[in-house]
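Section 3.1: Structural characterization of target chains.
Under the original work plan, the team committed to producing a structural model for every single-chain target entering the pipeline before any wet-lab resources were allocated. The record below documents one such target. The sequence was received from the expression subgroup and is listed exactly as submitted; it comprises 100 residues.
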Amino acid sequence: MFQLAAATSGSSSWTGIVLPFVLMFAVFYFLLIRPQQKKQKTRTAMLNALKKGDKIVTIGGLHGTIVELTDDTVVLKVNDVTKLTFDRNSISHAISTEQQ
């Protein structure tokens, strides 16, 4: 009888130790990891969908229109004369024509 009680309390303490860690991982996954993965996926899709003539904003807040586009760099036309070259990853977001 004593051995049966010891065996059940041993398995109970094992689940009592592991269960909080599993619950913490689940909370971190759904509150931190999963939303960040969704955000990164939408950002990658936005960067891949860029084309000439799109109006964008850089991470530094510079507004411009895309003149040239390669895999790694973007050339922006800031005004009539000025063209600036940026890394493609420095683009914060594209501005749709409805916002202006």
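The first strand starts at residue 55 and ends at 58.
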